[in-house]
Design goal:
The protein has 639 residues and is α+β, with helices and mostly antiparallel strands. It is 33% helix and 18% strand. It has 14 helices and 23 strands. The strands form 3 sheets. Strands 3, 10, 15, 16, 17, 18, 19, 20, 21, 22 and 23 form an 11-stranded mixed sheet that branches. β4 and β5 form a beta hairpin. It is globular, with a radius of gyration of 24 Å. Bound molecules: beta-L-arabinofuranose (FUB) and zinc ion. The site of beta-L-arabinofuranose has 8 residues, from loops. The site of zinc ion (ZN) has 7 residues, from α12 and α14.
Length: 639
């Protein structure tokens, strides 16, 4: 099978980019961009508000306070000086990316909530960034501020340590991602042009040609970013470089599993090494696969996805079990208290599963995406948007607490750019089908078969399993609405035997159109309703949302003899303030009655679960009441 190929220009609606004039993304399924979806949801509305009012202003203030902008100013000053100004490149060699990532998140928000003051602030930051760009486009303050004594990780010359820790290509990747979002949101080219100049510099200096260097990124992300830059500009050289980075990995000087360079991608079948690098790599491979149509890439990421989902995925959707190299562990090595589960790795897992859906159209990828989103990713930021986790362990003896920022700030700045992009994950379109992938109250304006379709979704998901979808306008006539029926309501915890439900509860779902129950065989996990839709048509989906007990595969030693609780897409944990005895002494039996409680005072509509003597709260909401014990997996008792 070949995935369908490039369609230049006319595929505007299909592009990741808003005002895309470049090339199609190449995926058989078209994303519905975040700009087409207005969130009216309590759950995600509160997250977007926290992003706007707290996370993004905080991140910009941290960029100021920690000298991120000073780095650009010093690079500019040194470039124009006739002597060594003696600046010392401290911090991390990728500190520039926090600026780019925060602009990216702010740009998504600007699209939905125009804010001239924020836009002007970003413009002023971009003036500082632009001034640090070398005449040939190179932009990396960790070298430019002191070329004779660059950052310890930078190496003596450009690209000399790019396969190790210089992060020169990582900086490029985040710059391009941020610049494209900014361009889409504002229509301004001031960031995009900076990014294009740096990308052009890399295209000139790196590649298979004579006089070029053969190098691959130490830390991936440039693959995804360059593929996206290709779709925005239509310039083939960016796709060629993305493909070059993918193809040459494992053939250069760097050949280790930490950076997924132990083999070529075509020979890989296991998720290994640094989990963020890995997730970004597999996502970049998916983009290149979509754009080139080469099946060998797809075969490789299919194998790796199977490995993750059957042997390396936490129940929270977190990945990367060990702090040794911030990496994937061995198969079934999923410790709880020492689980690393970096917030960035959960974000990378969402990127990867999203792309797998766009390639294959099966709901199982969204089942994994949703699990990461509502659990291992969301736990990375506090409910108020002001404090963050870097690792997200599944058990704590009380030493964990979210912090307002980190020296290595990859996670908070990734939260900055990810949360505002969530509306872009709700729907997708293919030919005459509209996929409803996430249940989020919103209003959608999109096109199916090239014709306008408007609908509104209302729901109290993830707390309740009832969803209403009303057709507000339809110029597309007949089309198929594909409702994702999540694995959890079909009796499947994850699309593998890594976790299974341990109770005897049967959950059901019911779909009605205009009050009449309809039936359909699921296709690839979707309930398909094919009809000539009229304005006012109402689809309702009811999903039973009983709390469920989960057991891990026996091969997961850390979870042997333990049970966990989840309800709908939300994984629960026991935390110290709610339980009269130490969390480590709480037990669950497979027949324990589970009941749901909602207290009016609970923020964000949170439901607790009572399981015998244990009181449980959503995992993402832990660590809001001071330090103390927490556990997702509780010991199983006989009765
Ligand atoms: O190297 C850049 C980022 O810093 C990685 O993605 C994180 O794991 C942290 O090491
Ligand atoms: Zn991180």
């Amino acid at each position: 099978m070949k995935v369908h190929l490039l369609l230049v220009g006319a595929a505007a609606a299909a592009c990741f980019a808003l005002s895309c004039t470049g090339a199609s993304h190449g995926y058989p399924i078209d994303p519905v961009p975040f700009t087409s979806v207005s969130v009216t949801d309590d759950f995600w509305g509160a997250r977007l508000k926290a992003s706007r009012e707290v996370t993004i202003p905080l991140a910009f203030s941290k960029c100021e306070e920690t000298g991120r902008y000073t780095n650009f100013e010093q690079a500019a000053a040194q470039m124009h000086a006739d002597h060594d100004l003696g600046f010392h490149p401290g911090g991390y060699s990728f500190d520039d990316t926090d600026v780019y990532k925060t602009i990216e998140g702010a740009s998504y928000l600007l699209q939905t909530y125009p804010d001239p003051k924020l836009e002007a602030y970003i413009d002023s930051v971009l003036v500082i960034v632009a001034a640090a760009q070398e005449p040939d486009g190179y932009l990396y303050t960790a070298r430019t501020m002191n070329p004779a004594h660059p950052h310890d990780w930078a190496g003596p010359e450009r690209w000399s340590k790019v396969e190790e820790l210089s992060h020169e290509f990582y900086n490029l990747g985040h710059m391009v991602e941020g610049a494209i979002a900014h361009y889409q949101a504002t229509g301004k080219r001031n960031f995009l042009d900076i990014a294009i100049r740096y990308a052009d510099c890399v295209c000139r200096e790196i590649g298979p040609g004579e006089g070029q260097l053969v190098r691959v990124p130490g830390h991936q992300i440039a693959e995804m970013a360059l593929a996206k830059l290709y779709t925005v500009t239509g310039e083939r050289k960016y796709l060629d470089l993305a493909k070059f980075f993918v193809d040459r990995r494992g053939t250069t000087d760097r050949r280790d599993s930490y950076s997924q360079a132990h083999k070529t991608i075509f020979e890989q079948d296991e998720a290994v090494g640094h989990a963020v690098r890995a997730g970004y790599f597999y996502s970049g491979v998916a983009d290149v696969a979509a754009l080139t149509g080469e099946q060998a890439y797809i075969d490789a990421i299919d194998r790796i996805w199977d490995n993750i989902v059957s042997k390396k995925l936490y129940i929270t959707g977190g990945v990367g079990s060990t702090n040794r190299g911030e990496a994937f562990g061995a198969n079934y090595e999923l410790p709880n208290a020492t689980a690393y589960c970096e917030t960035c790795a959960a974000i990378a897992n969402v990127y990867f599963n999203y792309r797998m859906f766009l390639l294959h159209g099966e709901s199982k990828y969204y089942d994994v995406l949703e699990r990461s989103l509502y659990n291992g990713l969301l736990s990375g930021v506090s409910l108020d948007g002001g404090t963050f986790f870097y690792p997200n362990p599944l058990a704590s003896d009380g030493r964990h607490a979210r912090q307002a920022w980190f020296g290595c700030a990859c996670c908070p700045s990734n939260i900055c750019r990810f949360i505002p992009s969530v509306p872009g994950y709700v729907y997708a379109v293919k030919d005459d089908a509209l996929y409803v992938n996430l249940y989020v109250a919103d209003r959608l304006e999109t096109k199916v078969k090239g014709r306008e379709v408007k609908l509104s979704q209302s729901t109290a998901y993830p707390w309740e399993g009832d969803v209403e979808i009303r057709i507000d306008a339809n110029k597309a006539g007949r089309f198929t609405m594909k409702l994702r029926i999540p694995g959890w309501v079909r009796g499947e915890v994850v699309p593998s035997d890594l976790y299974t439900f341990a109770d005897l509860t049967q959950t059901h779902y019911i779909v009605k159109v205009n009050g009449q129950e309809v039936s359909s065989e699921l296709q690839d996990g979707y309930f398909c309703i094919d009809r000539k839709w009229q304005e006012g048509d109402l689809v309702t989906l009811h999903m039973d949302m009983q709390p469920r007990l989960v057991r891990a595969n026996e091969a997961v030693r850390a979870d042997r003899g333990r049970l966990a609780v989840e309800r709908g897409p939300v994984v629960y944990c026991a935390e110290w303030p709610d339980n009269g005895i130490p969390v480590s002494e709480l037990t669950l039996s497979s027949s324990v009655p589970l009941s749901v409680e909602q207290q009016a005072s609970e923020p964000g509509g949170i439901r607790r679960i009572h399981a015998g003597d244990a009181v449980l709260i959503p995992y993402f909401a832990w660590a809001h009441r001071g330090r103390g014990e927490m556990a997702v997996w509780l010991e199983e008792s006989a009765e």
